[in-house]
Structures are given as structure tokens and as C-alpha cells.
Amino acid sequence: MDESPDSEPRVVEGACLCGAVRFEVTLPTLFCAHCHCTMCRRAHGSAYVTWIGVPRLQLRIHAGGTDLVRHQSSDHGQRSFCRVCGSSLFCESSRHPDRIDVVLANMAGPVDRAPQAHFYFDDRAEWVAVDDGLPRLGGESGVEPR
Ligand SMILES: [Zn+2]
Ligand SMILES: [Zn+2]
């Protein structure tokens, strides 16, 4: 990998399960974290969801924009998924309008960082075992030290 300071920013492709929705993320990301909130759990049908936070201008949807369904999942949050295959793709919040969260699992290649923390750890499923040394954040905002 070219690490020289004047190299082009690295771009990583992403897509939903069926490939209708295709997008790319220009690095660097803002963070990478596992979210244990109940909405992530239900929306994705999984114990928790690993997200990358991306400045909005660094996400480009280049196919399937019209297949993207938006769901207002809370007063401030909107989740979007592919209407063809159901893949959950993005989460946006009016609390941080310049950022969009992208599901790491839908990226085709490695990004610029490994998961750094657990968010909403107080809300985790009781049947999930977490055995890593990452910070476990929680509280009202989901990202406070516990
Ligand atoms: Zn799809
Ligand atoms: Zn969540």
C-alpha cells in the first residue's frame, strides 16, 4: 500500500447482499465500533452491529439509490436498507448531520481501522459473550464510560 503523504485517498467499495445498491467510502473514517443498541439488534437480526462513521461527503452511492428505503427509526435517526434484498446499509442522525454510519460488513475490503469500542454496552443482548479488551461504553448516549 502506498503510504506516501501525497498519495490519493483510498476508496473502499461497498454493496448490499443482492448488489442493487453500490457505494464507495473514501477514507479516512471517523471511528469503527460495535453497537449493542436494541434498534441495531432488531434492524439487523444480529447480536450487535459493527459500524464505521464516515463524513457524509466521503460516501458516494453510485448505483441503486432508488432501491434504498429509509426508515425513521427514532425521532433523530433514520436507517436505510435495500428494498430488494433487505440488507441494512446506513444510519443517519440529525444529532450529527455531517456524518453517516455505514455497516462495516457491507464493505468489500478492509478500511483504515479495526473496531475500537463497544457502544450501548448496557443494552447488549444477555446471550452474547464479549471477550475482547475494547472499551465498553454505555449510558444515555451509548458512548459514555461505564
Ligand atoms: Zn440489495
Ligand atoms: Zn445501534
Please give a structural write-up:
- There is one protein chain.
- The protein is mainly beta.
- It is built from one helix and twelve strands; from the N terminus they run βββαβββββββββ.
- The strands form three sheets. It has a seven-stranded mixed beta sheet with strand order 6-7-8-9-4-3-10. It has a three-stranded antiparallel beta sheet with strand order 1-2-5, with no helix packed on it.
- A hairpin with a 5-residue loop joins strand 8 (88-93) and strand 9 (99-103).
- The longest helix is centred in the N-terminal third of the chain and has 7 residues, at 38-44.
- It is globular and about 40 Å long.
- The N and C termini lie far apart (38 Å).
- Bound molecules: zinc ion (2 copies).
- The site of one zinc ion has 5 residues, from helix 1.
- Residues 35, 37, 39-40, 120 line the site of one zinc ion (ZN).
Give the structure's gist in a few sentences:
This protein has one helix at residues 38-44; strands spanning 11-15, 22-26, 31-35, 49-55, 59-63, 68-72, 77-82, 88-93, 99-103, 117-119, 137-138, 144-145.
Which features does this protein show?
146 residues, binds zinc ion, 5% helix, 7-stranded mixed β-sheet, mainly beta, single chain, 3-stranded antiparallel β-sheet, globular, 1 helix
> Overall mean pLDDT score?
95
Overall helicity: under 10%
Total DSSP E strands:
12
Shape: globular
**Largest beta-sheet details:** 7 strands, mixed
* Bound ligands: zinc ion
Number of DSSP helical runs = 1
